[in-house]
Amino acid sequence: MSDDHLHIPVDAAFSRRVPIHDDRERLVCDSCEYVIYENPKIVVGVVATWQGKILLVKRAIEPRKGFWTLPAGYLELNESAEDGACREAWEEARAKLVINQVMAVYSIPRISQIQIIYRAALTTPDIGPGPESQEVGLFTWQDIPWDQIAFPSVHWALRQYDQIKNQKAFPSFTNPTGEGEVI
Amino acid sequence: MSDDHLHIPVDAAFSRRVPIHDDRERLVCDSCEYVIYENPKIVVGVVATWQGKILLVKRAIEPRKGFWTLPAGYLELNESAEDGACREAWEEARAKLVINQVMAVYSIPRISQIQIIYRAALTTPDIGPGPESQEVGLFTWQDIPWDQIAFPSVHWALRQYDQIKNQKAFPSFTNPTGEGEVI
Ligand SMILES: [Zn+2]
Ligand SMILES: [Zn+2]
Questions:
Q1: N or C: where does chain B have the smaller number of CB atoms within 10 Å of the terminal CB?
Q2: Residues of A whose CB is below 8 A from B109
Q3: Average pLDDT over residues B108-132
Q4: How far apart are the first and last CA of chain B?
Q5: What's the CA-to-centroid distance between A25 and ligand 1, angstroms?
Q6: Strand partners, B42
Q7: pLDDT digits (tens, 9 = 90+) for B1-36
């Protein structure tokens, strides 16, 4: 499986067909047989806190515009997962933070998505909405807008964070049992 | 960002250009402006043991043909990370196993790769080479072929596994400090 996907010529055209030596339809270059593999996507995000309060952002874009979520987004090419999580926290909440440890690895196979969520600490309470956020806030547990949460995995991460918030180190979580769980 | 990449028409042709409302070159459908995002890839793998011995496979394919590695490979579409890790262990080593917990999440940004490694237990010592393996084996620590290991991250995973092999639960690892580490 080639890792040369950054070297596709600018004028290449691709068609969906079964490449040589393969058994599935792929996106194949019409002139050189280069194959683009369609892969699951990686979302990186954080449960980040300041003095026990949890950072949430209100989405300014679809899907789930107007609902609250954790800072998270797609990992980019040539980016570490930790860098991606920090970048998203900056882009969405103008938050600066220090990653503490992997909090959870979730699988959402229906949409071919893996979510890697870190526990993190804000280094300053100065936050503000980025272009994809309507609003940002630091919430105590009881002030979290539970009926306006954007995605099920945000519920998972918040509940799991609450279990380990006072632990110095902890085994990372996966999908809660019964919710898209596989093991 | 669309998740409709499974619905690309069979006859679509794609060119590399800057799509509407974007600022980077992407692969864009010539007829409908559908964008294929090129994303980092997810590798899923296991440190799997039977009575304290670690499962390794000798690669029958490039890169690093003839070198030893942990069962691991690219996550497929619509697959959970745990299912993918078990599938790779079956494909490469005919191994049946039970996932225990996330052992490590590594970032290899140079090749846009995230590796999710689980600790696992073989449910039977019956193993054998799959089509992409020359050989498989269960190794004690001192019998591991240390000078014939395929990739740096296999060294990372083996060393980190050794640190936690007697622990019931443990915080998951990331890249070892100084080796592509970012935090
Ligand atoms: Zn080509
Ligand atoms: Zn189209």
A1: N
A2: 78-80, 83
A3: 97
A4: 28
A5: 16
A6: B114
A7: 333 334 455 566 778 888 777 777 887 877 777 777
